[in-house]
Structure formats: C-alpha cells, structure tokens
Amino acid sequence: MRTNRIAPLLVSAGLLATALPLLTTTGAAAAPAPAPGAQKPTWHRCSPDQPASYECATIKVPLDHQRPRGRTIDLAISRIKSANPAKRHGVLLLNPGGPGGPGLSLPLDMDAAFPKKVREKYDLIGFDPRGAGASSPITCGMTDAEQNFDRPYRPETFPSDIAWARTIADKCREKAGAVLPHITTRNTARDMDVIRAALGERKISYLGYSYGTYLGSVYAQMYPDRADRFVLDSGVDPGRAWRGMLQVWATEAEPAFARWTRWTAERDAEFGLGTTPAAVSASFWDLVARADREPIEFAGLKLTGDDIRSARPVFFTPSQAAPLVAAVKAAAEGRPLPRGAAVPDPGRVFGTDRLKAAAPAPPAVAPASTGRTSAPEPPTDNGTAVFWAVLCGDTDAWPRDPGQYARDAARDKAKYPLYGDMASNIKPCAFWQRPLEAATPMTKRAKVLTVQNEWDSQTPLVSGQGLHRALKGSRMVLAQGGEGHSVYLVERGSCVEAPVSAYLASGRLPGRDITCRTEPAPATERREVLPAPSPFPDGPRRF
C-alpha cells in the first residue's frame, strides 16, 4: 500500500476526513489536484480602492467531487478577520441567495451591519459559488429577452414557449456542457467544506439568505458534525425544490393580493382605486385588460397586462403596490402622477429584461469591473445560467412532457390568476439532462435557527415553515407583520435582530420558536441596514 506524506499533517490539522478520498486513490499517472486540506489560501488585498482588511484568494476545487484527481475549477473566496482575536469563535460563511448570486463582497458589505457582540466572534467569509462571479463563471450565451421566464400561458403561444425552453437548454449544453451537470447545490456544499478545510477550521458557522437557506440545510445534512451556528433566513422548503418553489410564488400571491385590496380600500382618498376590496380588485383587473388591448406607456416602458401581473412581488408590500398601480392607472388615463408619489422603481418591479427587445448574445467576458474587486466581470447571463443549472440539476422532479406544463399552466391560471400560469408554464428543465445524483434527504437533526418575515414574496411563509418542519431540531423566529424578502440585518428595526444576534453570539438556540411583531415601515422610509446597491440578488425572479 502506498503511503502519503501529507496524511500526518492533515491529521494534526484535523483535516484528514476532507482529504481521505484523495489519499485512498491510487494509480493515477497525472499529478493530482491539491488535497483540499493541503491548500493554504494566498490572501491579497481585494482591490486597491477597498480596505486592506478585505482580503481575497482563489482556491481549487474538483469539478467532480467524485473524481478528486480530475479537473479542477477556481473558487474565489474573501474574508475580513475578527478585530478581537481574544473573543473570536471561528468563521462565518455568508451566502446571499440566487442561485447564482455572487457572495465575494459580502464580508465588506456586511462588516458594519453586525452588532459588535456578533462581529467580534467571527472572521467573515465570502465566496462566489461554483460557476458564479469569479469562480470559473459559466455562460449560456442568453440574450436579455431569453433570460426572462415570466411567460404567460396561452394555447396559441405555447409552441413558442416550448421553443424558448428548448433553446435555453440547448444553448447551455453547447456553452457549458462539461461543467453544467456539476453546478449543483450538493457540489456547492462540498465546496464549502473545502473552504472550511483550507481555512484550518474544524467547523463553520453560516448565515444564508433565501436560496442560501437550502444550501445551508444541505450542508448541515451532508456534514452534520461540521455545522456550528447556522442561521437560515427566508427559507426554501426542501420539499418544493425546485418547481414547487416557483409555483408557491403563485399560490401565496393570492392572499397577498387580497390583503393589498383591503389595505388600499381603506386609503381610497389617497390612491383612488376603490372604497371596497372588491372595487380595488376590479380597478386592477380592468387595468390589466386595458393593457392587454393596448400597452400602457409608463416610465419609458410599454406595459402589457401580463407585465402588470408579473409585478406579483410588490403586492406583498401594500404601501408600494398601491402607489404603483395608481401611477399606472394615471398613465393609462393620461393623467400626471400625484406630486410626491412614492412609486417603486419600475425596472426593478417589472424586470427590465422582459421589456427589452431581443439583443445579440453577450460577449464571453464583459469589460473589467470598476466594482469591489479587480477581477473581470462575469458574462452578463452568468447569474441566470447558474440559476437554471442548479434548479434543473438538483432534482429530477421536473416533468419531461411539454403537455404536462400546458395542462398545469391552464389549471393554475384559473386558480391563481395573478401569476399561476407563469409559475407553471414550461421551463428549460423540461429539456435538461438528468441530474447526476438525487436531491438531499432532510433526515438528520439540525440545530439551526430559521428566520422568516410573514409577508415574503420570494420565499413565502409556507415555504419557511416547510424548511423549519424539515429540519428536525431547528427553531424558528417569525416576524409577524414583517414585509419583504430577507430579514436579519436587511430590515432595520426588525424584531428578529435580538434573538438572531443572541444565537450567533452565544451558540444557544432559543428554547422554543419565537413569534414577534414587526410593524411595516411607510413606503417613503428606507429600512435597509446594508449599503446600496444591495449585495443580494436583484429582481422579482430570484430566491
């Protein structure tokens, strides 16, 4: 039997378990990839225009973790160390969601947001997940128009929906076929464990938002003995991954819409949309029908009724939805907007990609960044490419029969008129290659803390409750009345801050679930703790 000289070093560092697959492989003629535990990041200042404390490095991870001696890809990581080594507990990995959201800048973005008692406990660790950002980014060569998947269902246009879904799958295979099957949540969780080993840590703590809650729960199942203090904010229900997570946007938009009609009817003097919930609803659907007959010119855009329906997320925050609908109605009637009206950014609400004409495919790499690091910007469709790679590659639960999507979309358009057809219509996963491995079962106890707003458009309350139920041993902090997607350190003054900070500082889970009360802020008041622009994935179609 061959001996390996690095084994004693790995044992002394507590890293042997990570490197074992490499140590037991024999007979390879080519030089092996570096053992994960043997890597020591070469840290450097991320950018000359950023603080020296914000450091970056690149490590290597196997493209296929089942073949650790095979091809490797880059993984970009970053850190800001604890300023109080005497009180340091360990490392806190951060993930903003997505999937496809880059996280390299998160230590810098979030450094000042943590309470002192939490911040001094950790080195903050950011990373761009595999395939995203600066971590060997992938592209499918999608145009802006092709990246939009809010496709309303109509029998006469369904053949073009099939063609769109097939085109995306074909483009992704053509541009990233060798890498694509390995851009999955399970492999990203394995990468997180390589990061842990490279940092010389026996365990990691973690703060993940939205999709990051699913990534964190998968890590906690795969490496339960290495998961320390885990906060999963705005939960993805593992039982709905992933088609069900799109469909829950439709089912939960209906009670949010009903709540909006009640709120708006009480303020008819301000918005002029009706004095009863039924009248407000009628005003909205009349506007949709009018825009379907003739697009409404609004803020430089031409809105169809389908565009207006795609603004689904805004109805989870009535104080934003009411002025928006009133403004579109005024535009349709040729009236000026009320002076001082607090109307949300139309590009963010409607998604400007759906409103642009088809453009040529983006270049493989965009010009050099002027942002947080000196690395070149990833391809312009990078986030969407990773989004589909993960959603389609994580699970084999997607129907393969286009007719099934047509039947589901027709059914859900009737049941959930705001967004049901768009949620259930055909997606590229119908034509994706079969996943290489099954989704992760949630069978192990996980002493993690889940966090949730009551009115969350992207990971609605029922989804967060599903995550909490799936993770036996978890606790949940629910902000009753809380609006918006992502809570801790994102919504200023949220009642979740105290219990979450206490857990991260002490490691002690609450003895029971906590429900606290958060009052929604007026639309004119910014509540974000984090700097603008937000480090979290933008737009109405991400987790």
Supply database-style keywords.
alpha/beta, 13% strand, ten-stranded mixed beta sheet, globular, 543 residues, disordered N terminus, 36% helix, 19 helices, two-stranded antiparallel ribbon
List the helices and strands and how they pair.
Blueprint: H1 7-13, H2 16-23, E1 44-45, E2 55-62, E3 72-80, E4 90-95, H3 106-110, H4 116-119, E5 122-127, H5 144-147, H6 158-176, H7 185-198, E6 204-209, H8 211-222, E7 227-233, H9 243-265, H10 268-271, H11 277-293, E8 296-298, E9 301-303, H12 305-309, H13 318-332, H14 346-350, H15 382-393, H16 402-415, H17 420-424, E10 449-455, H18 461-470, E11 475-483, H19 497-506, E12 514-517
Parallel strand pairs: 4-5, 4-6, 6-7, 7-10, 10-11, 11-12
Antiparallel strand pairs: 1-2, 2-3, 3-5, 8-9
Helix pairs in contact: 7-8, 9-11, 9-13, 11-13
Describe the protein.
The chain has 543 residues and is α/β, with parallel strands linked by helices. It is 36% helix and 13% strand. The chain has 19 helices and twelve strands. The protein has helices at residues 7-13, 16-23, 106-110, 116-119, 144-147, 158-176, 185-198, 211-222, 243-265, 268-271, 277-293, 305-309, 318-332, 346-350, 382-393, 402-415, 420-424, 461-470, 497-506, and strands at residues 44-45, 55-62, 72-80, 90-95, 122-127, 204-209, 227-233, 296-298, 301-303, 449-455, 475-483, 514-517. The strands form two sheets. A ten-stranded mixed β-sheet has the order 1-2-3-5-4-6-7-10-11-12, with helices on both faces. A hairpin with a 2-residue loop joins β8 and β9. α7 packs across α8 and α11 (277-293) crosses α13. The chain starts with 6 loop residues before the first helix and ends in a 26-residue tail after the last strand. The relative contact order is 0.14. Residues 1-32 and 353-372 have low confidence and may be disordered.
